[in-house]
Amino acid sequence: MKLERRKKEILIVVAILIIQTIIFIIAEINKSYIHMDEAYSLGLANYDKTEIQENSDFYDNWHTKEYYEDYLEVNENEKDNFSPVYENQKNDVHPPLYYLLLRIAMGFHIGTFSKWSGIALNIIIYEFITIFVYLIIKKLLRENKNHQIKSAILALLSSVTLASISNVIYIRMYALTTLNIVITTYLHLKLLEQNKSNYKLLLAIGTLALIGSLTHYYYLFYLAILVIMFTIKYIKQKNYKELAKYLGTIILAGIISLAIFPYSIKHIFFGYRGQGAISSLTNIPQAIVSICEYIFITNVYIFNNALFIILLFIFGIIIYRKSRKITQTKTKNKYIKYIAIPTLFYVILVSLSSPYKTLRYIMPVGNLIFILVIYYIIKISENIFKESTMNKVIISIYLLILIMPVVSNKVIDLALGRKFRSEQETSYSNKTEIAENLKNEISIPINIISNFTNMSLDDILLYIKDFKLEPEVLFSDKRNITEIIKDNSSLPALYFFDSNHNRFLDDILLFTYINESYIVKDFKYSEEKVKNITSQKDTSNGILIFINDGQNNDEILNIIKNTLNLNSTRYLERLNSSDVYLVK
Description:
- This protein is mainly alpha-helical.
- It contains 27 helices and six strands.
């Protein structure tokens, strides 16, 4: 009988892994662009410099698309060279382990750029994340009827939220950091069950501490809180022998980590990111604003915009319990605080220290946040609903989470009106005009939102106009510009680049499609300069123009048209850091 249950459990887990993998593959097929940090991931794992802009010939020279592809791919003569994995990280702000794994994955596509290198790696990582999330949930729900099936469904749902899908299709180290955190959590829950140290378990905890510290420094936030909690636990029990073994394991892992990558000290304490994080931790007024922003991010991506509805449901259950004087079950779950407290402190510390308030920094605990909220709903609903009713309630919440992205997008359309949702800037410079129109017509209390963020009112309005509930790095809005550039790849391209706004890697993918391109550094608005650059190029069919921030777009475009005897300007799209035009 036990063997049959075990087989059934394995089949359930395999089924949810297959389902989530299909969802991840569909999302990746629809991924239309890459963020500059994803370009950094690929370049740092294989290139001989941290940025392609460091090349002496980068500016003011014509380059073919292969020049840019070289930054994003492993070439035949580089396939056995792994030194950039370590050397580049010395000069960057992250430890090297993820880049080593990415470099290995990129080795399966020698001589070609493929987004699938990083995505396939993350899909494999997420298979293990879901397995360990399932094991954690199973411990939390072990007293519940049919806890294995419930745990499997909850594990699956936690892995297909917008946050989890973003985690998979984002070619960065956050999926690996997530895996480190969930395995570390599971191992510590196992340690709670031990009356005496299991050396294999301690070895596993030490190994994960080592791996985590070599993946992302934010992992140390989570680990530090767990270590403090277990230290307090052993001291309360006066079990100093076990405490010594446990702390000895963690300290040894730290020593080995520093022996492998001593530059971590420089990154954490003396690097610009580390110093920025440390100074942010002392900025209390900013803390409340940052936490509010992360609550918004949690709602949108970890709960698919359903968190506040779920919180209302929880509040209603609490009121009902009090009004009916229903006492909650006194039995305590010994595991829950060892998940909840580290997760809470991680979110707070990341809210205070992260350089940008964005999803990526809390993705590593996204699954844990999700299961903690659902677990709490199950606990407070005890003694209120029958088992069958409770199952229906949970299923209803699951369905709500699944359909909320579609519902939310429809609501935003209605609130703004399709006219404004479809209105397109003709250049970045006219965004203020669109924001003013939105301000007069918008039907939601936008001023309330501005109290909780440092964003300007114009930026909030434009953010809402273009906002769509989907995985954060799907970049579906870049699908059109990508196709347009591919269709016009035979045209020469000029990128007028203001070096004070250096985010070229946000645009590099498009340059891997263009046959010939030229980066004009700090243009001085000279027709003679344009004439010299294009003298050997055929521009009779037109030219692609990229202009990044800090410049006078109209003046540059007029110079292009006058110099090359071109008549029309077609604004194509705003990228993350530049405007793109087709001049004919």
